Amino acid sequence: MYVCPSCERPINQATEICPYCVTDLIHLRDALETEPPRKPNPAAILARWGVLVAAVWVFLWFVMPERATDQRLQAEQVVVDAIQQVQSALASYLAVQGTFPDSLEALGERVRIAAQQAQGQGYRLVYLPGNAAPDGRTRSYTLEARAGNYGYRSFYTDESGVLRATQQPRPANALDPPL
Fold first, then answer.
1. Structure confidence at residue 36 as a pLDDT band (50, 70, 90)
2. pTM (predicted TM-score)
3. Is residue 129 part of a domain?
């Protein structure tokens, strides 16, 4: 079907005069056919592509998260800081009480926040007090940071304060190399 350019009603393509608006379609077709086709303006095309590329770049700039740092190293640093905070609190507790606590809850809010930060990075802090001496005091402990993410290091420390780490998929222990 063909549409009359004047009244925009459907008509037969071979029609010379529109039956609805009585427009002479032969002269109109000749005028349309003799008009040269317009060439696209290169400046307009470049401007459209420039706007498109800029829009995509702005979208990616604001939407995509920053990946400048290695997430694994950043997570491990947060855990090492948490372990150091717990070690500091354990040393203070030992200096005041003369023994290590039975659990990390006795160390207060600062240690709870450090444990939560480690957990937020996919680690679980495990505190194990040593056996009590004959006088009832605990003078040793182990503290492990077990990685829940594959490829992350696990950490271990004890009352000596030496931090050890392993890349193997197991909890770190006293035989692993110091950090």
1. low
2. 0.60
3. yes
